[in-house]
Design a protein that fits this description.
Elements (H helix, E strand, L loop, with lengths): L1 E6 L4 H17 L3 E6 L2 H6 L7 E4 L2 E5 L5 H9 L1
Parallel strand pairs: 1-2
Antiparallel strand pairs: 1-3, 3-4
Helix pairs in contact: 1-3
Length: 78
Amino acid sequence: MMKIEVLGTGCKKCVNTAEQISEAAESLHVEAEVEKVTDPAVIMRYGVMATPAVAIDGKLVHSGSVPDRETIEGWLRG
């Protein structure tokens, strides 16, 4: 199971990012735990300077915008 963290303050873009990732995982039948992380200390440990950001299995893969569906599906397919 993939662990996907959506890093951000809880803004609309961050919520939208988490929802899009969850929907894509469900449609691709990929087991993924999607967690919204709002703790500034955790976000800074990843070195994130702009949110929303996405980390998969502890590795930062995206930051600064809402990723498009194609990008999300690429992550989920691995």
